[in-house]
Amino acid sequence: MKPNEPDRRLRTPLEGSGHRPWDPAAVIDAPLQLHQARVQPEWVDYNGHMSESCYLLVFGDSSDAFFRFVGIDETYRDVGGHSFYTVETHLHNLREVALAAPLRLSLQLLDLDDKRVHLFHAMQHGDTGDLLATAEQMLVHVDMQQGRAAPILPPIHQHLQAILQAHAALPRPAQAGSSIGIRRKPART
Prior knowledge:
The chain is of the alpha+beta class and 189 residues long. It is built from 3 helices and 6 strands. Strands 1, 2, 3, 4, 5 and 6 form a 6-stranded antiparallel beta sheet that branches. The longest helix is centred in the first third of the chain and has 19 residues, at 52-70.
């Protein structure tokens, strides 16, 4: 960015808000419900409903809320030199979403290891509870100086382990792990 040039980087609603302190005694909701939004005019496309890219935008904001929940914010990135990068996302757009519709997001931690986090998001209509869309994501913890995957730092890994344990009893979402393809009927012989 050049001097005197406006900063036009994409920002999340939580950017600059820090993170709340982790309370090891607090009950962890299963699933977590950390983000809500309302469909903005700039998210609506020429078909009169939320554009497909904006579903991912909202799921990304939900991920940001999750990372702040576990202790990751700008300081973790800028001072510590670590972050999580998304390496794969699968979206399921199940229903159209209209302008100003209230959105309620939930998040389930499906799995983790020393470097990766496997998340599942569900987007529901805030009034009716209808399931609108889901997103499944694989994220990798990165040492930004080295430019490669790195072990999740111990305090954050402990927080993630606690969430994984709280989410262990949840059923696996129907859309999780699905692949894309055209289903064909077997040919008759």
